[in-house]
Amino acid sequence: MDPVTFADPAAVADALDSAGYLPDTGLATAAYLAIVMQRPLFLEGDPGVGKTALAHALATITGSRLVRLQCYEGIDASQALYDWDFPRQILHLRAAGDTADRAELEASLYDRRFLVARPILQALEHSPSALLIDELDRADDEFEAFLLEVLADNAVTIPELGTITADVPPLVVITSNRTREVHDALKRRCLYHWVPHPDFTREVAIVRRRIPNAAVELVQDVAAAVGRLREANLLKPPGVSETIDWTQALHVLGVSRLDPETAEATLGAALKYREDMVRVQRELATLIGG
């Protein structure tokens, strides 16, 4: 399969738009460069600004299979790369019985059929692939070091089988919510882009695309209210996903305009911390409007 090519960042922006993702110029340019230069794209930004959604859209427009590696505290190489299917190996030993040649039997335990490919190995073996390494900031330093080595070579070495190298390097998207700083060594290997919250006009366009039947005035009211909430120094400001959820909740209730009463009744769609809800309820007229 021939790789999908794009003439310029505007072509990437148009393709992403067709795939349901509305990028700004900076993000479309970063995505274009990642595709053309075959460099990992490192995206930082607040939760809910569309980092993960971009990886899905990039997989769609490049005709790639999306492989997702969700990072978490304590993740290690075996959970990201490969593991051996121990139960099947035991069954193989039992089936062989006591008559099999011992050395040959032990060697057969590390056959490719007993190898369980985890996300990184899946992405290297399958072309074309888009590898999403989501929320890297949740992982630890050791995992970062391992990841840096894999990304540098686009290959992994399995002692029992040898080195597996990608025929075509996967399109790698790494995301971080910046709960901690990711090391400079890994960032230098990537193209970096900070993903901001969208401006009012683009957020309205995003929500209208996702909920086309919602009243235009309602979408504008919610987008404006969310913009004010993001400037209110909350514990967790609402992202685009919360704007969509809040609009959807109001639309389901048959609301066509946002007012303080309906805002208070549906705040749980936009805010996820009790402290934020209490504060917004106290300052509802100012933060919500109406």
What does this structure look like?
With 290 residues, the protein is of the alpha/beta class. The chain folds into three domains: 9-79 and 119-194, Rossmann fold (3-Layer(aba) Sandwich), CATH 3.40.50.300; 82-117, no CATH class; 200-288. 48% of the residues lie in helices and 14% in strands. It has 15 helices and nine strands. It has helices at residues 9-18, 25-37, 51-61, 77-80, 86-96, 102-108, 119-125, 141-153, 184-188, 200-210, 216-230, 240-252, 260-265, 274-282, 284-288; strands at 41-44, 65-70, 82-84, 115-117, 129-134, 155-158, 162-165, 171-176, 191-194. A five-stranded parallel β-sheet has the order 2-5-8-1-9, with helices on both faces. Strands 3-4 form a two-stranded antiparallel sheet. It has a two-stranded antiparallel sheet with strand order 6-7. A hairpin with a 3-residue loop joins strand 6 and strand 7. The model has no long low-confidence stretch (mean pLDDT 91).
Blueprint (SSEs and pairs):
Elements: H1 9-18, H2 25-37, E1 41-44, H3 51-61, E2 65-70, H4 77-80, E3 82-84, H5 86-96, H6 102-108, E4 115-117, H7 119-125, E5 129-134, H8 141-153, E6 155-158, E7 162-165, E8 171-176, H9 184-188, E9 191-194, H10 200-210, H11 216-230, H12 240-252, H13 260-265, H14 274-282, H15 284-288
Parallel strand pairs: 1-8, 1-9, 2-5, 5-8
Antiparallel strand pairs: 3-4, 6-7
Helix pairs in contact: 1-2, 10-11, 10-12, 11-12
Key words describing this protein structure:
single chain, 290 residues, alpha/beta, Rossmann fold, 3 domains, 48% helix, elongated
